[in-house]
Design goal:
The protein has 388 residues and is α+β, with helices and mostly antiparallel strands. Helices cover 64% and strands 10% of the residues.
Amino acid sequence: MVTTSTHDFWHGRQTRVGPYAEGMRRMGSDEWAGLVMLAVAVGVSLPALLGLVPTEIGRGPWIAVLSVFVVCLLLAVLADGRRSRYAALAGAVLSSWALVLTVHVSGLLPVILVVMAAVSAYLVPVRAVAGIVAGNTVVLWLAHLPVETFAEPLVMVGFYLLIQVASVLSSLALIREQRMRRDLARAHVELQGASVLMEQSARSAERLRISRDLHDLIGHQLTVLTLELEAARHRGAEHGRDHIDRADRVARDLLADVRHTVSELRAPPADLTEAVRRVLEDIPGLEVELDMEPEVSLDEERSAVVLRAVQEIVTNTLRHAEARTLTIHVAQDGHEVVLTGSDDGRGDERLTWGNGLRGMAERLTDLGGRLDVDGSGGFTVTVRVPAV
């Protein structure tokens, strides 16, 4: 059994995939950043939470609003579905406005609005983020409006507006960087797969060239050999000696050519395990564990289909699953080779097949194979290829 992680393969270490709870995503850098922002929001609320700052609605109701804000922000960061994220974010935004508007001396409490602006950049489109920033600015203006001079609320609102814009731009820059890394990872997988398949195609072309050369060369030499022997037979022993000598030279040359051609054809066949490893090697942002039985053996056409399937599984994981870990298992099951790819991403029970999956299914159908996809609790793709 061949078991390795593509990140740690050359160091001899293994990475195991633990159980994954259905409906929950693993904590990544984005989720941890959201929780840190939540901690900041709670921290700036401590004066009102501890009763050090008076509130217009009473301390108990204000704490209840703060609790709603915390729960909604947690759901917005950790929820899987788009509708649930949007609903939770709307609840967090409205409750943050209520918190700021119901405190007499806001202090650092408006930082909550900055947190909401930064978090929203990860969850909703840019237009919606701009709307949240505009709403936060209006709330800040209303919260600081009851003052003696016009300049004080203007300076305060302008200051927090600049901080919100800076936070949103920073978040958008990080999102673009993450998107570029995912695109780079997909391009890396496609390049690795194309490189392996091109090598296999080159070997096929070389074998075809050798077979043609063998046909042309041996056919010509056998023709010459037949003519020389026929001439020697008709001319007798004394006059046919020259023909026999030439036939002997032709036979020796023919034997040498056959040996050379056979040595080229006996080059070791492509190693499917090594080819799959190369496709999975050093994928940015994704930990891949390969578990492949050594007795798996396929011809060139079926090996190419398996490599294409591995490439498609990794590409879909990077593009759609938001996963941290992918497990690839390849085993011989009777007269079939079974390839299974399972990730720990968010999955989708209402899965819609794209062109990649449809193309893979068509290639497998042509070979008498089958493709199954399960989107519950992460994506699981099962490919069955007849071994012969």
